[in-house]
UniProtKB/TrEMBL annotation:
InterPro entries: Catalase, Catalase_3, Catalase_AS, Catalase_clade1/3, Catalase_core, Catalase_haem_BS, Catalase_immune_responsive, Catalase_sf. Keywords: Heme, Hydrogen peroxide, Iron, Metal-binding, Oxidoreductase, Peroxidase. The lineage of its organism: Bacteria, Pseudomonadati, Pseudomonadota, Betaproteobacteria, Burkholderiales. Residues 1-20 are annotated as: Disordered. This is Catalase. Its cofactor is heme. Belongs to the catalase family. It comes from Rubrivivax gelatinosus.
Length: 485
């Protein structure tokens, strides 16, 4: 029976499928948002056994070395001294393709870094782009469905993709990156990595600053022209995997320089007042002229895993894995990922996936979680509970001890889109491109856009014109050239 009204899987009408419920317009998301939770939980269980996103990946072990002192910003012990090294594992991936897809497809690239610190694992699960397509996690399953296969034809569908983007102006910044040559990087060694979200650093005094993480490749940026990406996809679909593996095996260890952009809360309030942009909005970047990058250290990959499945396939990352001195932010997409990633790993790898070597912390572990599949240690005779201490928690025994941030407002669903500026930053990015890069962008976008209906084409060109009239004119000209062939 067809029902045009959106409901939960239990048939309950959905009041709002566009905005997550939060504690105030800027506050954290609420667990009582059962529609959001149901969507994310079901989305995480849509594929067996490969990852729903980031299915095709490569990985390697290495080390992170601190090169500059940032202890004024963070008490995290992995940054405690210049020269200190921390073991790492990095997994690169394409995002939308299946496990057997080609490495050179037009797609963002995952750039997930695990730091095995003395205080537990820190996972920085980012991409090779500083932004993303959406700003609210309630739309993530919908967005990814448009990047996967049409349920009718089982084919990739430009109509589905541009139907979502043309009705979601906030996606324009990331779509511009995607259809530039940055959408087809030349392997994993020649691209940058970003934490993308706004995170935070906390120092010994309990002071918090907001930060953006950047990893700049020391190999130099290299991208593929669209025709070369298509050719390589047919000749060597494992191109990026082969390049990374062979480089490490031959001793040409890839390296990235790590930086942070730093913004304190007073700067945030001033910047938001002046620009109208939300510092925690994942579709936006912080201008480097105002918030310059500060060097932190160097990431080097120097060892291929002995077994791909054991390490690369079973690696279970989560942005919720942070150590004392690091923290989160009110970024709604980050807040959603804090739940969704760990839930995905529980389903995909198993209840006790942390026991696997690639996921096991390199420090002592003690908790009260027991039993379940693959409980290979299960803590022997150790008790499986901790009583409540009526005297309170002793000083110095507060665990992570992340300070809170102020909340205000009533709970509800808050839509920031009507007042949002989704065009200035994409326009700024477009104007930074050279004439040749602009033409590549026009041609790359015109290909799939030529396969959608005229209504969507007009709507999309209207968004481009708001970013920069030359952007819309260039894509329109590329569309006319294709139709004239």
């Amino acid at each position: 029976m067809t029902n045009t009204r959106l409901t939960t899987a239990s048939g309950i009408p959905v009041a709002d499928n566009q905005n997550s419920m939060s504690a105030g317009a800027r506050g954290p998301l609420l667990l009582q948002d059962v529609h959001l939770i149901e969507k994310l939980q079901h989305f995480n269980r849509e594929r067996i056994p490969e990852r729903v996103v980031h299915a095709k990946g490569s990985g390697a072990y290495g080390r992170f070395t601190v090169t500059q002192d940032i202890t004024r910003y963070t008490k995290a012990r992995l940054f405690s001294a210049v020269g200190k090294t921390t073991e790492t594992f990095v997994r690169f991936s394409t995002v939308g393709g299946e496990k057997g897809s080609a490495d050179t497809e037009r797609d963002p690239r995952g750039f997930a870094i695990r730091f095995y610190t003395e205080d537990g694992n820190w996972d920085l699960t980012g991409n090779n782009t500083p932004t993303f397509f959406i700003k609210d996690p309630i739309k993530f399953p919908d967005f990814i469905h448009t990047q996967k296969r049409c349920p009718f034809s089982n084919l990739k569908s430009p109509q589905m993709m541009f139907d979502f983007w043309a009705n979601t102006p906030e996606s324009l910044h990331q779509v511009t990156i995607l259809f530039s040559n940055r959408g087809t990087p030349d392997g994993y060694r020649h691209m940058d990595g970003f934490g993308s979200h706004t995170f935070s650093l906390i120092n010994e005094a309990g002071e918090r600053v907001w930060v953006k993480w950047h990893f700049k490749t020391q190999q130099g940026i290299k991208n593929l022209k669209a025709r070369d990406a298509v050719r390589i996809a047919g000749e060597d679909p494992d191109y990026a995997q082969r390049d990374l593996f062979q480089a490490i095996e031959s001793g040409r260890f890839p390296r990235w320089t790590a930086y942070v952009q730093v913004m304190d809360d007073a700067q945030r309030l001033d910047w938001e007042r002046r620009t109208g942009w939300d510092a925690f909005d994942l579709t936006k970047v912080w201008p480097q002229g105002e918030f310059p990058r500060l060097e932190v250290g160097v990431l080097e990959l120097d060892r291929n895993p002995d077994n791909y499945h054991a390490d690369v396939e079973q690696a279970a990352f989560s942005p919720g894995h942070v150590v004392p001195g690091l923290g989160f932010s009110p970024d709604k997409m980050l807040q959603g990922r804090l739940f969704a990633y760990h839930d995905a790993q529980l389903y995909r790898v198993g209840t006790n996936h942390q026991y696997l070597p690639v996921n096991r912390p390199r420090c002592p572990v003690q908790h009260q979680q027991r039993d379940g599949a693959m409980a290979v240690e299960n803590f022997g005779r150790a008790q499986n509970y901790q009583p409540v201490d009526a005297a309170g928690v002793p000083d110095g025994d507060h665990g992570h001890g992340e300070p809170g941030w102020a909340l205000n407002g009533t709970s509800g669903r808050f839509d920031p889109r009507p007042a949002a500026d989704d065009y200035t930053q994409p326009g700024n990015l477009f104007r930074l491109l050279s004439a040749e890069e602009r033409q590549d962008l026009f041609d790359n976008m015109a290909g799939p856009l030529s396969q959608v209906d005229a209504t969507l084409q007009d709507r999309w060109l209207g968004h481009l014109a708001k970013a920069d009239p030359a952007y819309a004119e260039g894509v329109a000209a590329a569309l006319r050239a294709r139709s004239a062939r």
